[in-house]
Amino acid sequence: MITSLRARLRASKSRSLTSIDQFGSTPFAVLGVSGTRALLGFVGFMFYVSQYADRHYLFGPSGVESWSRFLTILEETDTYSLYAVSTSTAWFEFLFHLGMLLALAVTLGVGGRPVLALHGVFLWSVYQRDQFLLDGGDNLAYLVIPMLLLTRCYDRLSLTSGLAERVKDRLPGGLRATQNPLHNLGVLAIAVQICLVYVTSGLYKVQGKLWQDGTALFYIMRIPEFELPGWSRLVYDNDLLVIGGTYATTLFLVYFPLGVLVPKLRPWAALASIGFHLSIAFFMGLTGFALTMVACDLIFLSRPLGAGVRLAYRLRERVGSLAGQRAGWPKQPAVTAARTASAENAG
Amino acid sequence: MLLCGAALLGLHFAVAAFSQAPATPLKVRHFDKVKGYLDPYFVQNWMLFAPDPLADDRGVLARAQCRDGRVTDYHDVTTPYVRKAQESRFFPSRMSRLVSAPMQSINATDPLLDRLREKHKDGKGKVQLMPEEQKAQDNAVRFLARYSLTQMPDACGGDPQRVQVRMYVRELPAWSKRDAPVKPGEDPVQVQDFDWLKADELR
Q1: Contacts of A245 (CB under 8 A, 6+ apart)
Q2: Phi, psi of A282 (to 5 degrees)
Q3: Count of Cβ atoms closer than 10 Å to residue A203 Cβ
Q4: What is the complex's ipTM, to 2 decimals?
Q5: What average pLDDT does the segment A260-264 reach?
Q6: Which residues does chain A have within 8 Å of residue B91's beta carbon, measured at their own beta carbons?
Q7: Cβ of A179 under 8 Å from any chain B Cβ?
Q8: Subcellular localization, per the record (chain A) (predicted)?
């Protein structure tokens, strides 16, 4: 009895040691976190694009937020903004367009993590110029970018420049060995952060009267700023959709961490979140917010994403062979492909 | 290193979660320290549409006073950008937030003091706005006035002397009355007028 207990204890100890060991050596969710990087970069890029015509009015030296108030806010929050460096229009245009290019580079995966860090600095700077424009999505973006810097988020879905690889090869082995544990910590941090977002917002909803009554959606969807004329009515005029949607929202938000903790439920929890946020994007017009949340959900979807990428590869190969122009496509031996996929898409 | 990093992360998220907790005696005591750590790069607020979501149509109107003393009609400086936001579903313009966000900061008073205010609604013990709250409100009103000036460029031939902001809150029909016919002449709208501000000082 005691010996079997001891044996079992030893077994569980060695199992937890192996899992710690694995956590230190195998990078988890590389594909997912690469997707997070690409999509976050795209949302950042669209922040610049969607405000492009109004850029002088919103962010310029004589913008709608007065220059003196801008400087005061920076001082009060004890932070910086590159836009505060000079009142010249040329400097402003330079920053704005460079910021746009940096965001595009992050989306495409050019330049590696140094470019991601620069993008973070530029994005923070433009956010500070007009804080009234910001929402929870922007908040999540500036929290997650430093976490992404820890991860190998350029390993997949990127146009590699080659330079990063060469720099990596020159690094001493000891430093290179820290890569995987840091990566996994970064992924873990994003996972905890997104759970904190959902659970906080879920628990506060539980306390709200309209959410308890099951009518919150009815009210929110009629606020003019968040209404889609002609479409929102289809939801808020339907009692079942209003009550079902309101309760489903709260339940989903509160139980999201449990869904993520159980490996079998994980992709479903993430898919539910993506569906939820895409409908927010459609009905409420909060595209940037919704896609930022979706970007973070991608870290839970490495396996399905991997399957998707493989399918795309196979389709491309078949199309290529049909067209009789196989040359030119990069060919990866099936065995190595499977091996990388099984390791990097785990989690 | 892994364990060390995990411990640091745990600590960080414990603090971040604490900052999101409801107002408890513990939070009242320690929130300043927590804020000192989180400010400004880790600040977060996840009370998205909770606990009580907005449930009305609100915005601002503005009018100007010309140098000859004439006062213009009210300009609707809210609806055009709300329309613009409704017109697109792919990264719509955020201009409408230049009205809604400062309005929110006008109404975002200290939650603890708000409890006191709720208790002593009228008469004795009425709780005034604290200096910090007053400052936030003044700044938001100044921003709205400045914004409004840019939205009515033709008022007073382009050179108004003063500008006044009016905030309106129109309650939307409640769920229980969603099918009730709207009675003519009944418009449950509340307005609040802020002080006239000198245009030259806003520019």
Answers
A1: A217, A235
A2: -70, -50
A3: 19
A4: 0.93
A5: 93
A6: 46-47, 49-50, 287-288
A7: no
A8: Endomembrane system
